[in-house]
Amino acid sequence: MSESVKKIALLGATGSIGRSSLDIISRFPERYQVVALGGGRNIRELIALARRFQPQLLAVQEEAGAGELIQALRDCGLSIPVMVGQSGAVAVATHPQADIVIAAMVGAVGLEPTHAALKAGKDVALANKESMVMAGRLLNQVAAATGAAILPLDSEHSAIWQALNGEPKKGVEKLILTASGGPFRDFSLAEMGQVTPAQAMRHPRWEMGPKITIDSATMMNKALEIIEARWLFDVVPERIEVLVHPQSIVHSLVEYVDGSVLAQLGLPDMRLPIAYALAYPERLVLDLPKLDLAALGQLDFFEADAKRFPALRLVRQALAAGDSGAIAFNAANEVAVERFRQGEIGFLEIAESVEKVLNTVTREDFSTLTEILDFDKKIRHLMS
Fold this sequence. Notes:
- The protein has helices spanning 16-27, 43-53, 63-75, 85-93, 111-119, 129-146, 155-164, 189-192, 197-200, 210-218, 220-232, 271-279, 293-296, 311-320, 322-341, 348-358, 369-382; strands at residues 6-11, 32-38, 57-60, 82-84, 100-103, 123-126, 150-152, 172-179, 240-244, 250-256, 261-265, 302-303.
- It is of the alpha/beta class.
- The chain has 2 domains: 6-152, NAD(P)-binding Rossmann-like Domain (Rossmann fold, 3-Layer(aba) Sandwich); 157-382, Rna Polymerase Sigma Factor, Chain: A, CATH 1.10.1740.
- Helix 11 packs parallel to helix 14 and helix 15 (322-341) crosses helix 17.
- It is globular, with a radius of gyration of 20 Å.
């Protein structure tokens, strides 16, 4: 294999971002090689990926899954080390041969391996927005110290990255994140109060995992992206806005001081921002469906409604409370989403739960990973 081949470690291999990443990687075997894979509870899929890509290291979340994976590897004659839990995820993220780490785990569990990858000097293609939400300042400091790059994978942040490319920072007036509005964009508050988990899982544009899909329905996902954008692009929160765009064709925009607005457009397909990050500063020739604006006919935009989607209001409160506010915002939302999925609380109670927690938080900023993780645990314990 050529020395120019980029070697990749992938966390979240069996999730929607992981699958899209592996699709791009498999299209360009002369450019990319998978050296380590981390997956969740879908052991059958991870077994299939191990057989297909034959990485040098595998990691799973739980011990029971590890046993099943090890036996399956033996049965097909593969000798690949298998690690478990956070130590396994960190081992994947710091694999000595990896040039770039795709961080596609969902939730706060993605922070520790993302931090470890950057500390090891690995470039990180980041889809785990919770990492930047909880520890944006720290991760930027670590990346600056080691020379590692943080490459946005979310479609919205990739769009901003592309629209900022080559432009002087002093010329930026504001960043505009677009949101589809989710499945309940036109629901009244009364209707939203009756929403079931099954309804919340039917996103009109994107195919994503359950947590992110529900976050999109509450627009918590967009609120988290505001915090992430603040750290990825070093822009004060007051200059970051949200615009509802149901077609999900314009992925985000940048407004400049002269009134010009640059936007990145494309079909709602995560393979596009993934390919951009993996090949940057080049662009890959992709045999994928192309955007046909004439067939589309029109693009619609609406003001985001913070009354029906209070996440957009609560995120401003979280940002005003510094690191502790952002960590509490994320932790409370993760707990509340899981309770909603289990039928323990209603749809509107997700935001209500987050607000109750935020109202207890006083501003604190943290300088170490241990402090951040300890505060995250404190908030989750508070909600138990």
